[in-house]
Write a structure and sequence with these properties.
Layout: H1 2-26, H2 29-46, H3 52-71, H4 76-84, H5 87-95, H6 100-105, H7 108-119, H8 123-141, H9 145-153, H10 162-177, H11 184-193, H12 197-222, H13 234-237, H14 244-268, H15 272-290, H16 294-309, H17 314-333, H18 338-347, H19 351-367, H20 372-382, H21 392-406, H22 414-423, H23 427-455
Length: 459
């Protein structure tokens, strides 16, 4: 019976995603009603399965939002709007795991492991390679990057250095959160600020590179003077043959995916998030057809995707639907009006002080266990760029960077919890203690960059 219930939940979640994408083209009120009905059922089925910090945050978001909406006598259409607020994120979460299939079953793992075996023979190289792969793969598979990169990095003896491994994975993942269109944070922030992702992208990826370099330079300093881990074994390693064509193939498909999303969004004038969802559904089919592994795609779609990927979306569904409810409730009740008033009292109309206040408040709350989604939703929904004379892109960069830095230290962040599990350490140890200095230095660099861009008229 339990298995039947989980299968039904998977089918309903996938059906919800397909109906949503179909209705973007059909625009049927009847289908919209069906989507809302399915949404309510999926939320109800997901609630009992939520775990960890997402359970606390999600439950609290729903409870507070319901109390506010009831207290302010919100009509039915506001409740429906609140439920639909982050529906597009639920759809994206449901479909993006399909991109994991060609990555896992396209023959790329062995090639990447051989690269590790031959070239990753020092702490600095291990950090650099692991963080780069985490950033690149993270764009394609989101949170699944943690176990995937963990498996690849086992090819190196340096894998036993859990602090180095944890720092590389978490920081690499952080660097793509700032700009990637497949990340919920980026999509949510684009909605709040009204920024166009295509215009945001160059600044976002530049900031991602900066924080990536900051992490690498800090590693160079921390492990200065380190020697090869496996002296005397290199001659054996060099006999291993690396399939560079597979490494290149993976890179090409990844670049094509991101480029296609940007080009299609620009040409058709469609929101980037919707293109990401369509691409997640279609691109794996094209990818696996090109490399002649369509039967594997069908098998993994039928088995792993339905039995694991969709079932593991409970936390994301409750977390982001709850965030949508919360955003709608504070907007409808006008309680959010107090946030810009408080900020004005603290920083006036000084943009630099506003930037510092947003990033600092996000980091402080993240450090004590408040997930950045709460802080960013409140600020993003209530503080408008125009009120401070800055562009939506500037505000989006500040919020995206705050989120990225926040989840690098928050013990409530899913990526830190996942990495902590691999390292056998507490989330506080992996987040705040191992990444604290990195987050502080990166935040200072980002604030400096934002200020320079603004003063020279680029933002």
């Amino acid at each position: 019976m339990a298995i039947l219930g989980t299968r039904i939940r998977s089918l309903l979640t996938f059906g919800l995603a397909i109906l949503y994408l179909s209705n973007l083209l059909i625009k049927s009120d009847f289908i919209t009603d069906i989507i809302i009905f399915l949404m309510v059922i999926v939320i109800g089925l997901s609630f009992p399965s939520v775990t960890g910090s997402s359970k606390i945050i999600g439950y609290a978001s729903f409870a507070v939002s319901i109390v506010i909406l009831l207290g302010y006598h919100a009509p039915l259409n506001i409740w429906i709007q609140a439920l639909q607020e982050n529906l597009y994120l639920v759809v994206m979460f449901a479909l993006v795991p399909l991109l994991k299939i060609p990555i896992q079953h396209g023959g790329y793992f062995d090639a990447l492991q051989m690269v590790f075996r031959r070239y990753v023979n020092s702490n600095n190289r291990f950090y650099l390679m692991t963080s780069i792969i985490s950033a690149f793969v993270g764009v394609l598979v989101n949170m699944a990057v943690v176990p995937l990169v963990n498996e690849i990095s086992k090819a190196s003896d340096i894998y036993s250095n859990k602090k180095l491994l944890s720092s590389a994975i978490s920081r690499g993942f952080t660097s793509c959160i700032i700009w990637s269109p497949t990340m919920a944070a980026t999509v949510l922030i684009m909605q709040f600020t009204g920024a166009d992702w295509l215009l945001f992208f160059p600044y976002g990826i530049f900031c991602g590179v900066i924080v990536g370099l900051a992490g690498y330079i800090m590693t160079l300093y921390e492990y200065r003077g380190s020697t090869l881990v496996r002296p005397g074994v290199e001659s054996h390693i060099n006999e291993d043959k690396i399939n560079f064509s597979k490494v290149m193939e993976l890179s090409i498909f990844g670049i094509i995916l991101i480029t296609s999303i940007a080009v299609v969004s620009f040409v058709l004038g469609v929101q980037t998030i919707n293109i990401v969802s369509f691409a997640s559904l279609i691109f794996p089919i094209i990818w696996m057809a090109v490399i002649r592994r369509l039967p594997t795609l069908y098998k993994e779609f039928k088995d792993d995707y339905f039995n694991h990927s969709l079932l593991n979306l409970n936390n994301e569904i409750i977390l982001f639907v709850g965030a949508g409810l919360f955003a709608t409730s504070i907007t409808y009740s006008h309680l959010g009006n107090y946030v810009p008033q408080i900020l004005t009292l603290l920083v006036g109309h000084n943009v630099l002080l506003l930037t510092v206040a947003i990033i600092l408040s996000t980091l402080l709350l993240s450090a004590v266990g408040v997930h950045p989604i709460i802080t960013i939703v409140i600020i993003g929904e209530t503080v408008k760029a125009a009120a401070y004379g800055v562009s939506p892109i500037y505000m989006a960069l500040v919020l995206a960077s705050s989120w990225a830095m926040g989840i690098s230290i928050s013990p409530a962040a899913a990526n830190i919890i996942a990495v902590a599990g691999l390292a056998g350490q507490s989330p506080i140890q992996v987040g705040l203690r191992w990444n604290g200095a990195y987050v502080l230095i990166s935040s200072i660099l980002l604030i400096l960059i934002f200020t320079i861009f603004r003063l020279v008229g680029l933002l």
